[in-house]
Amino acid sequence: MCCEWLLSKAKPSDSAAIASLFALSWTSPFTRLQFGNVDAQALSTTMAPFIEQQIKQQNRQFVVIRQPATDEVVAVAQWTLPVAKALSEDEETPEENNERQQFEDEAYRKKLPDSSNKDLILEFTVGLRELKQQVLQGRQHFLLENVATHPDFRGRGFARRLVEWVFPQADVLNVLVYLDTASDNPAMRLYQKLGFEEKGRHTIQDLSKFVTSQELEVHGASNDHTHVAFIRYPNCVS
Length: 238
Fold this sequence. Notes:
This protein is an alpha+beta fold. It has one domain: Gcn5-related N-acetyltransferase (GNAT) (Aminopeptidase, 3-Layer(aba) Sandwich). Helices cover 42% and strands 21% of the residues. The protein contains 9 helices and 7 strands, in the order βαααββααβααβαβαβ. A 7-stranded mixed sheet has the order 1-2-3-4-5-7-6, sandwiched between helices. Strand 2 and strand 3 form a beta hairpin. The radius of gyration is 19 Å and the shape is globular.
């Protein structure tokens, strides 16, 4: 019956369902340190308009699995597609890039909920960006942004299929597939089985600089957090 659970590209009308899946999956202790005990429904409502915009972007691809009987979206992967680097005389200098990035980070900070831990979120965001830059060194790649399955439908291999979806395209284009994930995420085993290789780590040490010891205890979080960068190299296509 697995063959009935087909993969397809998401439509803008799927944005609310996708937002709900993401909200239900963002429950780790570290996520709660960043955003607090956010109500899943409220978070989903906030995210849905942004996801609808992203679905319409050419360099984004949301791939979903639907329940055959109801057409309900029960699993999703969010991909950023490789874009050829344009040759331009107006290419940014390192100083200009740094200035633009600081401006964008500040704009992002202002959009974050007042109840969130903005300092921790920015520390995490900048750290992951630097890790990605160090690992990829400007190489073209598919980027796995998010993958989520509804709790009622986990254990059916949907995440594996959603990740594998991009492999034939990456092989034809001869480009990398990149993702990062928390070091304590059980999905690391899946990524390694699929041929991803660990290429770097970013650790935020001493989280007590950003949160109280009581918050660490309440959320069951350790005093440091590590994210791991993975790369899948393309297979040669004859």
